[in-house]
């Protein structure tokens, strides 16, 4: 049976892993690339920093709601469990598979990008990109097959190295006597229609860069003390990420004027060239590799937990609940890894990234609504942690999610059509799986 002791996840993860997986699963190459694009959209120093702060506040509101949800239902799979409990099995099934798709694509993408950055450092390996990608995937599969503790240790080490790299880059930027910080503009140019449109477009990139902030919730079932560790890690991790993102942007603008940065495809590389000369590009490449290894490790661990939760409830194969001696959901890991291998070989998964932010916003919005619903439908459910200033913080998070979703539909209607198509096609499959359970 899927609920037998041999198929249960081990409680072996603590607060340090939680913070490490949140940082590791969030901070990637995005923060090194997006400042230039956002500078081009907004062309206003203070509005750019305000955009990153706004995105951070939205995520902080989410952390507030998820702290209650994850401690109330500390199960593997994260959001899927809360939505299923509040809105029924089909809503849970659909959100679970949406969440799985979003989290199962990144490992292939990061393996390929790490191989590309490795080739920048070692050009003689140019013909071995796919081999490096597949070797990297296999190495991480073997690491996680050896047990959860080894994966946890790697996550903590790589996340720490990542933070050290970013702090060093920020310090180096502020030590440079660079561009002057412009004064806050008092005219009405900030409120022009073009800038308002740019603000919402930039938020799509910013939300994508913050994606991964709720990573700790996928591991709630394996946490030694979820009631205390999950809220602590969500708040401290999110605040640390927000601080790093705002400081990185401010640091880049300290080195380069906004007009120059707006023309940059890889802002960090252009900044590093000024700070460190021609070797600057290599320094940014090394920082990128550390960032990517940390985020790859996190995303090797997340999808198997979602698949494990879906399998336990009969929405995937029963063997998906099989756990090895090291505490790894072994079948779920292998299935996810074969999916990553397939994507590496065909190399056409980038299209799926275009609606990853879409799906994330939908799942988060459903989770916030689930919190509101469960407070009324199951008021006596044990709640070790209660979100601050409920229900207003959750309602605001839900309104922001709906507003962002509306903006995404306006800017990318094709992805929305695909998502609706997936929802329609999934219902017959859900009915088939339900029949098998009987």
Automatic annotation (TrEMBL):
Matching InterPro entries: AA/rel_permease1, AminoAcid_Transporter
Pfam families, per database record: AA_permease_2 (PF13520)
Top-level taxon: Bacteria
Subcellular location: Membrane
Bilayer-spanning residue ranges: 12-32, 44-63, 128-148, 160-179, 191-213, 234-256, 283-308, 329-349, 355-372, 388-410, 416-433
Membrane topology: Multi-pass membrane protein
Swiss-Prot/TrEMBL keywords: Membrane, Transmembrane, Transmembrane helix
PANTHER family documented for this protein: AMINO ACID TRANSPORTER (PTHR11785), SOBREMESA, ISOFORM B (PTHR11785:SF512)
Protein name stated in the entry: Amino acid/polyamine/organocation transporter, APC superfamily
Species: Flavobacterium anhuiense
């Amino acid at each position: 049976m899927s609920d037998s002791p041999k198929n249960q996840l081990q409680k072996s993860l603590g607060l340090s892993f939680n913070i490490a997986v949140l940082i590791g699963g969030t901070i990637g190459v995005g923060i090194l690339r997006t400042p230039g694009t956002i500078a081009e959209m907004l062309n206003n120093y203070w509005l750019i920093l305000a955009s990153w702060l706004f995105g951070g506040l939205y995520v902080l509101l989410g952390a507030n709601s998820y702290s209650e949800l994850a401690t109330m239902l500390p199960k593997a799979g994260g959001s899927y469990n809360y939505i299923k409990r509040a809105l029924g099995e089909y809503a849970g099934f659909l959100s679970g598979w949406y969440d799985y798709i979003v989290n199962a694509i990144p490992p292939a993408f990061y393996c390929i990008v790490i191989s590309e950055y490795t080739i920048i450092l070692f050009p003689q390996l140019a013909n071995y990109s796919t081999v490096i990608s597949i070797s990297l995937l296999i190495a991480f599969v073997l690491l996680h097959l050896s047990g959860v503790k080894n994966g946890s240790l790697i996550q903590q080490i790589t996340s720490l190295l990542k933070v050290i790299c970013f702090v060093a880059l920020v310090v180096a930027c502020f030590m440079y006597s660079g561009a002057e910080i412009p004064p806050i503009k008092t005219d009405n140019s900030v409120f022009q229609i073009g800038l308002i449109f740019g603000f919402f477009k930039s938020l799509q990139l910013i939300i994508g860069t913050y994606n991964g902030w709720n990573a700790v919730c996928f591991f709630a079932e394996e946490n030694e003390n979820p009631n205390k560790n999950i809220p602590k890690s969500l708040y401290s991790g999110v605040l640390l990420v927000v601080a790093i993102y705002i400081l990185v942007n401010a640091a880049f603008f300290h080195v380069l004027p906004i007009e120059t940065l707006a023309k940059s495809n890889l802002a960090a590389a252009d900044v590093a060239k000024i700070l460190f000369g021609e070797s600057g590009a290599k320094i940014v490449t090394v920082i990128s590799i550390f960032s990517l290894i940390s985020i790859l490790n996190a995303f090797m661990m997340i999808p198997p937990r979602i698949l494990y939760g879906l399998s336990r409830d009969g929405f995937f194969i029963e063997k998906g609940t099989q756990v090895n001696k090291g505490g790894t959901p072994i079948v779920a890991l292998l299935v996810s890894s074969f999916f990553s291998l397939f994507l590496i070989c065909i190399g056409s998964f980038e299209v799926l990234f275009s609606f990853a932010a879409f799906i994330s916003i939908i799942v988060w919005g459903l989770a916030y609504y689930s919190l509101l619903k469960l407070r009324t439908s199951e008021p006596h459910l044990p709640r070790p942690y209660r979100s601050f200033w409920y229900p207003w913080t959750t309602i605001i998070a839900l309104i922001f999610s709906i507003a962002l979703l509306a903006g995404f539909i306006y800017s990318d209607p094709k992805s929305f059509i695909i998502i609706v198509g997936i929802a329609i096609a999934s219902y017959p499959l859900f009915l088939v799986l339900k029949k098998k359970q009987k």
